[in-house]
Structure prediction request, 246 residues.
Amino acid sequence: LVLNTYAQIRLLTANVDYSLDARYLEIRQAIDSYSPDVVLFIGLFSPLLHDLYTRYPVVGLNVHALPPLAPVDIWLSADETADTKVWSNLPVPRLQHFPFRFWPPRQEMAVPVNRQQWQAGDTAVVMVTVGYRLHHEMPENWLHELQAFLMKHTEVHWLLIGLAPALWPPGLLIHDRIHLVPPQTELDRYLAASDIYLNPPRAGGGGSVAMAMALGLPVLTMSGSDAADKVRSMAATSLEDYFERL
Prediction:
């Protein structure tokens, strides 16, 4: 977390030794003691929001391409034409266009990690995919086509950053050119060492796609996703289109 301010900031986290009910009570009491003018909620969902919404104005900044799954008065949306009526059992928020999400970690170009650790030489092509939920986010038909591409092009390597070995998907081959990399605090250095960013057909991926684009990396993604919002009309419209572009 980087705070671009010299002002004092107080951070309060719930005691994880408490039950969920006790944690919510602790946080709610702290908020009431502070008596805010506005509550800014960042994320998809929190049971606290249902109580806070009845007593404070709530502004929601979701980390996905949907409004928060909780009552908010205003939704800070990256898409100014997004649907605010996604959740039928929640109040419809007012949409405020807010395309700002994150800033690159530093202004200068990232220093690439050494590709030799994967036996990927200067003439190799390194594809990279990033995510904490890749075991759920790589459809079998997409995996099948991608691995066929990998077998056909022997100079190609594929980095999967954030996929835990214990969650290896059943459809993913064990291959010497498929490399699992644990989550990285300096993700930009791994992206800078790669040649193309591949986003699976999933709802998310926008953050890593935007970071790859900021580093000048070509990206490939399907339409109808948070990642597609970053490339707009250049998103692939079908699986056939996706692999033809690849």
Summary: The helical segments are 20-34, 48-52, 134-137, 140-152, 187-192, 206-214, 228-231, 239-245. The two ends are 35 Å apart (CA to CA).
